[in-house]
Every structure is written in structure tokens, then in C-alpha cells.
Amino acid sequence: MPITVTPDTFRLREAFTISRGSRTEARVLTVRVARDGEAGWGECVPYARYGESLDSVAAQIEGLPEGITRAALQGALPPGAARNAVDCALWDWEAKRAGLRAWELAGLPAPMACVTAFTLSLDMPENMRAAAARNAHRPLLKIKLGTPDDMPRLEAVRAGAPDAAIIVDANEGWTAEVYADLAPHLVRLGVRLVEQPLPAAGDGMLAEIARPLPVCADESCHDRASLSQLRGKYDMVNIKLDKTGGLTEALALRDAARAAGFGIMVGCMVGSSLAMAPAVLVAQGADVVDLDGPLLLAEDRAHPLRYDAAGVHPPERELWG
Fold first, then answer.
1. ∠156-270-96 over CA atoms, to 5°?
2. Which of 92, 188, 244, 321 has the smallest C-beta neighbourhood within 10 Å, fewest atoms?
């Protein structure tokens, strides 16, 4: 089963900034698995935070044996971007070969549209207020924060979008002291949850300080092996396919996290509709969905996902699955 990997770049509508830096384009790897006259497709976004680069991830994929199965793949590569792209490509190929949709192969009901968050990147308060006002019609806004000076940004976004639900992502940017100071204000401003307020390596303090609103593990949660370290510190987990290593583990993580009492958020890196398509299956019934990557792009795949007032819709067969 030949596997090919190709780098692709998608321009963003505008610069996207988090506490770790800014970008103006999404750089992804596209994987194609071909056999028996059918081809399956997958996409991943290598992430430097996890020690990944386009070259290192491509090398992992190119080192796989020809004909590898999805089951064998789970042990051949660790959780991460490389396994994700190949896993999702294999799901797509298997569905096409069987004449089924991917959710049928997985034994899942047909997916429905999901309301998704729309992300406002980190900026000056006045710019974030303007961005919030432009997107005030959206039901759920996600704010990128993670600096010691975030209160003016919070106030600005709430002023710009007084009726929208808000979630906050600190991207590991706060200390325990900063978070403890901000938490009552997050509650006052109606924030629904906060993602990864502390660095993953130092998140033990979350078990010792008050959590007046739900705290969601992002950088601290990769796959099912992460769950035992999250109890008592987090209330929810953010499932991203580039962290789990694909749809196979993402579905298993979702079920295990629910069984362990965690709420479910399904998120994404900044990628194209091909990257989001498998995640729509995981997002069914999730407490929070954050699959807005294509909304941040100035260009996308052919047959892109459809976004409207109902949220993000399941992929068409021509895109994936």
C-alpha cells in the first residue's frame, strides 16, 4: 500500500497569534494511501511544541513499511502528527474500498452538524474588541490569551460580544498566581471554561487551587495514557487528532475520558477541511467543539467542509470518509 507525503501551505485570512507566536499560513502535510484502485487521504499539522517539524514528521511517515494496516500503525508510530495523517488516510481508504462511510465502518451513527467555537487570536485589547464585535453573531467565541496582562483583553472581548458564550485558551501561558487572580473575573465575565492555564510540566498546582470554572487539559492530554495524570486537576480534556495520532485513538480516548468522568472538548490545529473532517466524527455529542480551522484560512481544499448557522457539517464523500 504505497504511502506518499506532500507538504502543502494554506494562506490565513489574517495573522493568527497565540502566546507562543504568530503565523500567516498553515503548513501541513498531506498523506495519500493508494491500493486496489482506491486512494485515501489524510492531513496533519506538525507542531513544534511537541518537537515536530515538517521534515521530521515526513521522515516518520516515509519510514513506514508498505502495506501497513491501521491496526499495525498504532504500535509502529507514537501518538502525534505522523500517525494521525496516515491513520486518517487509512480510514478514508478503507471506507472507499468497502463502499461505506467512515462512520459506518466505525459503528457510529450518521454525524450531524456541530456548533463550533470561532477563535479570536491574541492581540491588543482594542483589536480584540473589534474582532469580537465582527463575530458577535457567533454563538461561541474562543479567546487566545496567556500573558500577565490579559484582563483588558477579556473585558474588551466581552464588551464587543456581550451575548456570545466565551471560552478562554491560555496555551500554558499563566502561572498559578496569575490564574488564581483571573479566575473570579473569568466567572464574572461569563467564561464557560479555561483551557490549559498552566504549563503541562507544572500543572500539579491545579489540584491545590480553587477551580471555580471548568478547566480543560490540552497540552497535558494526548491519548488514553494521559488520563491517569489528569484526575483531580482537570474537568475536561481537549481531543485533537494531531495529538492522539489519528481517529482510531481519538475515538478510544473519547470513550475512556467519558467513562472516567471528564467532559469532552474536540479541538484542532490550524489546518484545512481535510484535517477537520475526521474530527467531526469525534465531535458528535461533545460538550465543546472547536473545529474552526478552515474559517481562519484564505484558501482551502476542494470540496471543503460546510459551515453555517448550524455549525460545521460532516464531510462530503469527495473530501474524506
1. 140
2. 188
| pTM given for the model | 0.95
Residues with Cβ within 8 Å of residue 252, at least 6 apart in sequence: 224
At residue 214, what is the residue type? P
243 is catalytic: no
Position 204, amino acid: G
Using one digit for the tens of pLDDT, what is the confidence trace for 177-228?
Answer: 999 999 999 999 999 999 999 999 999 999 999 889 999 999 999 999 999 9
Looking at this protein, which amino acid is placed at residue 302? Answer: A
**Total length of the chain:** 321
Q: What span, in angstroms and rounded, lies between the C-alpha atoms of 292 and 119?
A: 7
* 240 annotated active-site: yes
Which entry of 96, 142, 233, 240 is annotated as an active-site residue? 240
Q: Is 299 left (phi over 0), alpha (psi -120 to 50) or beta?
A: beta
Cα dihedral 226/230/234/237 (nearest 10): 10
